[in-house]
Amino acid sequence: MRLLRSSAIALAMLVALPAIAPLACAVPDLTAISPFDADRMNGLENARTRGLAEALLSESAADRELASHLFAPGIAPQAPLPDGAYRCRTIKLGGLLPLTAYSFFDCRISGSGTKIEKLTGSQRFSGELLASQAGGHFYRGALHYGDENPRPYREDGDRSQVGCLYRIEGKPVRYRLELPFPRFESTHDVIELVPAP
To answer: φ, ψ for residue 180 (rounded to 5)?
Structure first.
């Protein structure tokens, strides 16, 4: 009975979330990615929907509120992110657990909004942000660990990442980087970014 009630709540919350398709980003023309990553990008909306559905089945009200906080406000068109220091945290939707949220760490945007790096924490990433014709910014990068140097995209297929960055509507200013079907643990990863104070 509890599962049926949780499923009904999750379905109602998913229906209430705004449509994201009008600003769904795409891989920019002439940008090379692996066939595996092309499949992940083609499945971004499916990964998002599945990940959210799994997250909203959580019995934790705080988990459900966090998912709503990330997606309910909708997304807005975005010029390149301003260079500078950001706080970022990883939220894993679905997979091994309904939702897992990590603490905030240090991130940086540089290169006139074309480069993103997670600078602290045991799991880090770095990559490039490319304007997408569809409205978001396409991300292509790679995971590395705190005791390693950053890795280039495609050096190790298991570490490669692709996704889309959007600005979340409203104030305060926030962004979300969505990584569909990550290799490990979850169905859909979201990196929440906020400008550092």
So the answer is: -75, 140
